[in-house]
Fold this protein.
Amino acid sequence: MLGAGASAQTSPDLPFEVSNPKHLELPTDEANRIYSSACELVARSIRPEKPPRLAPRFVLVLGADANETLRNGALAEIHLKEWNPARFAEAMVLMATREILKNEDVMNLTRDTLMAAQASVSVSELKRKK
């Protein structure tokens, strides 16, 4: 998992590292705009009164076998088969959100979600029990 970034290159034009062994096209201006927009919009949607400054660190891996977002502790990668602005934007929203929601927060929300789901019963379940 998270090993493709070992040969990642930093670029002064981008706030993240890039691993692009197949030399696929990467429009850096567009990638920068998506990165900035995602960080700003996620920050304002979660804390509109005082948005935090988000700057997720990750490696963008172009030429990957699958489109996916990977995270293992502090290490994070966005894998894209090729440059795709929509998929990158989706991954950026996840990366920015994880800047606000730390692992402990995600675990607590997961536990609370399961407890809330187990504490409620749907109408169809009540009808079946009669």
Notes: Residues 106 and 112 are 10 Å apart (CA to CA).
